[in-house]
Amino acid sequence: MKLTNFMMAAAGASLLATSALASSDVRGRDGHANIIYWQAASILNPYLSGGTKDIDASSMIIEPLAHYDENGNMVPTLVDEIPTVANGGVSEDLTSITWKLSEGLKWSDGSPVTSADVVFTGEYCMNPDGGCQQLAKFGDVTSIEALDDLTVKITFGKPKPFPYGPFVGASVPIIQAKQFEGCSGAAAPTCTEQNFGPIGTGPFVVTEFRANDTISLAANENYRDPSKPAFATITFKGGGDAAAAARSVLETGEFDYAWNLQIAPEILAQMEAKGQGTVLSGFGPLVERLMVNLTDPDPALGDARSTVANPHPFLSDKAVRQALSMAIDRPLLVEVGYGKAGKVTCNVLPSPAIYNSTANDGCEVQDIAGANALLDAAGWVRGSDGVRAKDGVRLSILYQTSTNAVRQDFQALIKQWWGEIGVETELKNIDAAVFFGGDQSSPDTFQKLFADIEMYANTFDGTDPEAYMGSWQCSEIPSPENAWLGSNMPRYCNPEYDAMVAEMAGTADIDERARLAKAMNDMLMQDYVIIPLVHRGNVAAAANSLDGVKLNVWDSDLWNVADWSRK
After folding, report:
1. DSSP track, 137-206
2. C-alpha dihedral sign at 503, 535, 308, 421
3. What are the residue ranges of helices labelled H in 19-51?
4. pTM of this prediction?
5. Are 297 and 316 in contact (CB under 8 A)?
6. Least confident piece of the model among 13-22, 31-40, 307-316, 419-428
């Protein structure tokens, strides 16, 4: 039988692992590993992409000051300890946090990591012309300054009970000031060499990057732990679909790790029974949802399409948005798409449990009759073709998502239900590498939302939702002015919501923070600008020969790839 390149690499890794020269404290001792993400990485700079596949791929190369571990606890990465009020790292008045870099850290090019790199990274993201995708993590920051070569002080404009937004978690890593010095502001997306091959502190370095396809990586010879990583090289393969990715780990053994296995549960169980690998799962705050475009995506509007200058012709009507939600059978979506790896939710913030609201539970029961009555009362009248209209405007929706079997099943079911309430639906699916990519020239990114409705899931680092809920502030609306990199896809703008974001930023009491988070969630749900579908478990697969994998629903799946090894 002819071996594929990946199987040959795996075979070579096995020979190396059994070699008499192999030792538990030698970097690269376990040869090669293969990772597959069916959504291919399109960039290695999380500041220019909100796509999980880009953040995760980047996390093997560039790192934050601290990560969240598999239990949601903050753990030091480029520092020796997490700053707190108790240890003096957070000021008593909660207006500043001071981080002390570990001594001796080096970039992969051998140069020292200094506080100047941290300062530069913060300024890079906060540049108003840069369209930073992670800007919400820097909420209320007024200054970032280097006190000495290893010490960085972040000052906030108000008391900040949770000062761990900047530089904690895989989405906000430190980038090298020297490499990115010409890439701030409007130049950020143009720096292809830097964005495709960042110099980092992580366990691996990029040897080849093929956008929307494959990344080749080698062990970082300047990594801070001389015994890590165990793998000398890694191939990060993208593309295909979730079923093929799962099969490559669980059945053929061609890959060692597969991410985000959106596959019918019975099929996944059949694959796991082959004995090559193990399915991993865990529940965090990941929600599959519909994002409702409150602006007009009509191509005739040119550069002003999907911008706040043009309200949507019918989704601006709350009755229409509410009816769309009422028509959906969420328990059936869970059964069809996820089984035990899914739960019905009526919230965009279902986890941690302290933040889960019960105010929207009515969505758990489908109500076609109620949705029809609501549209009748709002003056939307069925035409001879069964499609409702008012004042010459027809309820005709373009509904887009990424290409994936479960998502296409969802699209088909939702189209059917919406047809029952007089809404015409055109379905569109886009290759995930494009949909979640950062290509500013593409009309098909999820940030641009050149459709009426789009469907996807995302989550946030750690267990505190302050920055996540800040995603739907007015200032986070994507537009040509910020290179379409804001995180407020519905283009929702409500001063009351913004006021709650600001209040939460200054609130220390955990119960009050929970009250505010629930109130923000409830406002989004009851305005029907986000329509939640399924509270999804994170599902992945690891080869039985792979050791050290700890599925992490609070950070990158690859957060501890330095600790992976071959059994």
Report:
1. GGTTEEEEEEEETTEEEEEESS--S----TTBSTTS----HHHHTT-SGGGGGG-HHHHHS---SSSEEE
2. negative
3. none
4. 0.77
5. no
6. 13-22
Can you read off the two tokens belonging to residue 61? Answer: 């190369």
Interval 165-199: pLDDT, tens: 999 999 999 999 999 999 999 999 999 999 999 99
CATH topology of domain 284-536: Dipeptide-binding Protein; domain 3 (3.10.105)
Q: Using an 8 Å Cβ cutoff, are 233 and 16 in contact?
A: no
Q: Whole-angstrom Cα distance, residue 21 to residue 94?
A: 52
Domain ranges, ordered by start, for the chain: 284-536
Q: What confidence tens digit (pLDDT) does each residue in 424-451 have? A: 999 999 998 899 887 778 999 999 999 9
What lies within 8 Å, CB to CB, of 333 at 6+ separation is: 342, 410, 413, 533, 534
Task: List phi, psi (to 5°) of 18.
Answer: -95, 0
> pLDDT digit string (tens) for 405-425?
899 999 999 999 999 999 999
CB atoms within 10 A of CB 238: 23
Nearest CA to 134 out of 62, 239, 78 is that of 62
Strands of the sheet with 393-394, listed across from one edge: 381-382, 388-390, 393-394
Q: What is the pLDDT of residues 361-370, one digit of tens each?
A: 999 999 999 9
Angle between helix 368-377 and helix 318-326 axes, rounded to 10 deg? 170
Helix axes 510-526, 495-505, angle to 10 degrees: 160
Q: How far does CA 281 lie from the centroid of its chain?
A: 17
Selection from 280, 344, 321, 298 nearest residue 492 by Cα: 321
Which run of H or of E encompasses 376? Answer: helix 368-377
Return the structure tokens found at 19.
């070699």
Stretch 205-220: mean pLDDT, rounded? 97
What pLDDT score was predicted for residue 2?
A: 33
Alpha-carbon gap, residue 422 to 382, rounded angstroms: 6
* 3-state secondary structure (DSSP) of residue 168: strand
Q: Is the pLDDT of residue 15 over 80?
A: no
**Residue 340: strand, helix, or coil:** helix
pLDDT on residue 452: 98
Q: So what's the pLDDT on residue 23?
A: 61
**Neighbour tally for 545: CB within 10 Å:** 18
Task: Quickly count helices (H) and strands (E) in the chain.
Answer: 15, 21
Mean pLDDT calculated for residue range 504-509: 87
Sign of torsion, CA 197 77 235 536?
negative
* CA terminus-to-terminus distance, the chain: 25
- What is the pLDDT at residue 14? 44
Dihedral over Cα of 103, 108, 110, 112: its sign: negative
Bond into 112 cis (ω within 30): no
Q: Counting beta carbons within 10 angstroms of the beta carbon of residue 509, is it exposed (0 to 12), middle (13 to 18) or buried (19 or more)?
A: exposed
